[in-house]
């Protein structure tokens, strides 16, 4: 596990974008695993800036996103489909048919999860998976549990996640109760993992996840077993592990 410390969110975003750019340049038809949330927004902005300077070409890139709310239409501004188009896909020359987000409107959960796993397999796997880190150690929508979920599955959102997300919706009743997410096994099969984390509110979970025991109660802790993980974290997020890395 390689940890890069950066001064702040902006520097973290630039470093992460550098790593993703290297992947795109070395393998123009690579498969990027992508995430939503506040952590990767700066990374996407930086990639767009380099694209606008003609330093990057997304024309052969394929993407697969980690997760999506179940029951939200694509044009709902809280769907992850909408987020990805707003922050990246609509701003670069990626082919829309090469971008993939789980279909939140597919009512048959088993079918959608099997389809998504098969899609990733058909690409020969993810070359680099970008991740954020939840305050409770979740990655994707894989919440603390008694076991690690292997493949793409449908999860019931916890009360705390619904509570945390309700600020984005008109009311708590409008927050979806379920989501589709890649499993921990799906994530662990990515050839390379790039996790971005910023802010002192994440310092405690960074210490637990990457310096504590490997346990499904802290889903991100499994990343300690992956052979190619890069964590790009700002100083605030590394505040509790300064002397350890
Ligand atoms: C997003 C995702 C989530 C976030 C995590 C951190 O697709 O899968 O696991 O990465 O909740 O969110 P932020 O970056 O908003 O702190």
Task: Describe the overall structure.
- The chain is α/β, with parallel strands linked by helices.
- The chain has a single domain, classed as Rossmann fold.
- The chain contains 7 helices and 10 strands.
- It has a 7-stranded parallel beta sheet with strand order 1-10-9-6-2-3-5, covered by helices on one side.
- The mean pLDDT is 96.
- The site of fructose -6-phosphate has 13 residues, from loops.
Q: What is the strand and helix layout of this fold?
A:
Layout: E1 2-6, H1 9-26, E2 31-34, H2 41-52, E3 62-65, E4 67-69, H3 80-87, E5 99-100, H4 109-122, E6 128-131, E7 153-156, H5 159-165, E8 178-181, H6 184-188, E9 192-197, H7 203-211, E10 229-234
Parallel strand pairs: 1-10, 2-3, 2-6, 3-5, 6-9, 9-10
Antiparallel strand pairs: 4-8, 7-8
Helix pairs in contact: 1-2
The chain binds fructose -6-phosphate.
Fructose -6-phosphate binds next to loops.
């Amino acid at each position: 596990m390689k940890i890069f410390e950066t001064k702040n969110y902006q520097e973290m975003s630039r470093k992460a974008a550098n790593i993703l750019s290297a992947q795109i340049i070395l393998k123009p038809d690579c498969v990027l695993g992508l995430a939503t949330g506040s952590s990767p927004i700066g990374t996407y902005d930086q990639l767009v800036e380099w694209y606008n300077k003609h330093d990057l070409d997304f024309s052969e890139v394929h993407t697969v996103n980690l997760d999506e709310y179940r029951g939200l239409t694509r044009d709902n501004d809280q769907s992850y489909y909408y987020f990805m188009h707003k922050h990246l896909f609509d701003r670069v020359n990626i082919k829309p048919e090469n971008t993939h987000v789980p279909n939140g409107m597919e009512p048959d959960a088993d079918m959608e999860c099997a389809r998504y796993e098969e899609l990733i397999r058909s690409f020969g796997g993810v070359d680099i998976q970008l991740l954020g880190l939840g305050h409770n150690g979740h990655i994707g929508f894989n919440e603390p549990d008694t076991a690690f979920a292997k493949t793409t599955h449908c999860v019931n959102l916890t009360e705390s996640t619904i509570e945390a997300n309700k600020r984005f919706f008109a009311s708590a009743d409008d927050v979806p109760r379920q989501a589709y997410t890649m499993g921990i096994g799906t994530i662990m099969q990515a050839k390379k993992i790039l996790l971005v984390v910023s802010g002192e509110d994440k310092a405690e979970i960074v210490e637990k996840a990457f310096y504590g025991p490997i346990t499904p109660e802290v889903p991100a802790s499994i990343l300690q077993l992956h052979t190619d993980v890069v964590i790009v974290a700002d100083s605030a997020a590394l505040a509790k592990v300064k002397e350890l890395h």
